[in-house]
Amino acid sequence: MTANDYLKKYSKEADRFLNSFFLKKRRLAGRIDPDLVNILQVFQDYTKGGKKVRGALTVLGYQACGGKDIKAILPVSCGIELFHNFLLIHDDIIDRDKERRGKLTVHTHFAAKRGEHYGNSKAIIVGDVGAFLAYELILSSGFSKERTLRAVAKLNEFLLKTGYGQLLDIDYDFKKNISWDDILKVRTYKTAYYTITMPLSVGAILAGAKLEVLNNIEKYSIPVGLAFQLADDILGVFGSIEKTGKSNTSDISEGKKTFLYAKSLELANAEDKNFLQRWYGVKDANESRVRRIREIMGFCGAQEYSQNLAYDLVKKGKKYVAMITKVRKYQELLESLADYVVNREK
Question: N or C: which end of the chain has fewer CB atoms below 10 A?
Fold first, then answer.
């Protein structure tokens, strides 16, 4: 089984579980106020689709470390997915994105009713509610108290790192000059830990993994997580809107300080560098200027460099697979996952 097959299989199982979970939650919320039923439906609709990588990796980390109780780990994995969507809803507000997965973002959905402030306010709280529901799923999953507390502590450790990364990212977007090391720091804290390390670690802890295994998970997952972000940066500029379900111009218009942008400034000739510094991050830049920015990033070699770096990071991470699990089936899945993050189209 490839990582892509594993993700598709998990996504179907998670959607079935979440359909049942949200049905119960809507019924309970309806006893308080009918409007809450619709709001929970908006949140559930937002969770549908997507790759569900983090939920799947929670299960994979559990299985790779000897876990057998799929009925117990599935709610935990869905809780991890709800945390992911909580963060995405807030991230959409910060980035002022109007679409996610081919649908309106939550704040845009609500803004259509009573304006931007109303939409942002509702979306923030919808995201918060998602986080509260996530904790409920994890804490009621049936694992021992000791393992559950360890898993939640590890989860919070990584959520805190994600928060720090997001705070740095917001400030870095206002800096004219930003170093490669600055971007590496943000991407490690905002993305790498939370995308790969956190879910694998939570699953492994619930399976009873020892500290040595958790350390090797981190050595595997940080380079793979950074490769995931490099691929995201490339898709954010060169990706197909039809396949990704999101804009391929928002990183440019918002002036996101990505690996791709930093390398473009380093490799571009003087004229192209001046053009990037003048128009990258200008919201009213016309289509031809956005197109030229995309061309510069390709012609100067930044796109190819970023892609090759992603492959090198994946190769580095794969060295630790055999130290995470001795089961060949799960070794192959972890290796396939590493390849998937750099070869995906969405």
Answer: N
